[in-house]
Design a protein that fits this description.
Layout lengths: L1 H12 L1 H5 L3 E6 L1 E5 L5 E5 L1 E4 L2 E11 L15 E3 H5 L9 H18 L5 H7 L2 H13 L7 E6 L9 H16 L2 E6 L6 E5 L40 H14 L6 E2 L8 E8 L2 E8 L6
Parallel strand pairs: 2-7
Antiparallel strand pairs: 1-5, 2-3, 4-5, 6-7, 8-9, 10-11, 11-12
Length: 290
């Protein structure tokens, strides 16, 4: 079974990534350095991309504990510039939403009690500093959906702070538990699990402009027996995260990359695209295909 095979791949080669389930890698366009008082300095966070314009560097940030969609689900340490710092020239028709989102982000940081977030609170409570960070971001070409990450004056990312990580995992678990479905038998492992109502989206899909869902039941015609969303294909949150992590890893551009395992050269994988179809394959014992 394809999803089961992908989950096994993740269990074998992506153990560290699965252990960090409350976090994910996203492209960070700006880093906002804050001194203890909250005074901001905005820096571009890009890397060369061949002949193209420089692209945002990928960094680990907090994963949203609930689907965002039209809901306001605050994150901490890094997020869209509009959700971190509120409405500005980038807001357009989203002015009210951006203001409410930044207020929710501020309240979450304030309730955390995490020391490394105090400079962000100081910034948000200082009109001069808040205007400064917005103006610097605007000058740098920021758009509302570009991501910015908070860092201390030495460039250390807030998200990497041990106290912050411990707090976020605890917060994520409590919030995410509210999204789980009823106990059901997993169609992948056969175990009784609390089902993931929605699954993470797959990145790096050739030809796609955004992340794509492999398992999705977004219309009643696709559902059976009164089940909702992904209860129609029940599996645990970990299994859903595992197969998506495997796909994201396997579809990184490039061919014949060795897997990372305790067993040397255990897996070799590749991707081949033929017009509208992408063929994904990986094999045990790479020597057989050398």
């Amino acid at each position: 079974m394809f999803i089961a095979a992908l989950a096994r791949y993740a269990d074998e080669y992506l153990r560290d990534q699965l252990a960090a389930y409350a976090f994910e890698e996203r492209p960070i366009r700006f880093v906002v350095l804050l001194d203890d008082d909250g005074k901001p300095t905005v820096r571009d966070h890009v890397e060369p991309d061949g002949k193209k314009k420089p692209k945002a560097k990928a960094e680990v940030i907090c994963r949203a504990p609930k689907p965002r969609g039209s809901r306001i689900v605050p994150l901490a340490g890094a997020d869209n510039v509009a959700y971190l710092f509120g409405a500005h020239s980038w807001s357009g028709k989203q002015h009210d939403r951006n203001e409410r989102s930044s207020r929710a982000t501020y309240e979450l940081a304030k309730s955390s009690g995490v020391a490394v977030l105090q400079p962000y609170l100081n910034l948000m409570e200082n009109e001069k500093y808040l205007k400064s960070v917005r103006d610097q971001l605007e000058k740098g070409g920021a758009q509302a959906d570009m991501l910015a990450a908070l860092a201390d004056a030495d460039g250390n990312f807030v998200v990497n702070d041990p106290e912050f990580k411990e707090w976020w995992v605890s917060y994520y678990d409590k919030q995410h538990a509210e999204t789980l479905g009823p106990p059901m038998q997993s169609c992948i492992t056969g175990e009784l699990v609390r089902t993931a109502r929605t699954h993470p989206r797959v990145a790096n899909v050739p030809g796609a402009n955004s992340r794509s869902a492999l398992v999705s039941f977004n219309a009643s015609a696709f559902c059976h027996h009164g089940w909702e969303q992904s209860e129609n294909s029940p599996m645990s949150v970990r299994t859903a995260a595992a197969y998506v992590a495997a796909l994201n890893d396997l579809m990184i551009p490039g061919v014949h990359r060795l897997g990372d395992s305790d067993v040397e050269c255990r897996t070799r994988f590749s991707m081949k695209q033929d017009e509208e179809v992408t063929y994904l394959f990986w094999m045990d014992v790479p020597s057989e295909v050398d």
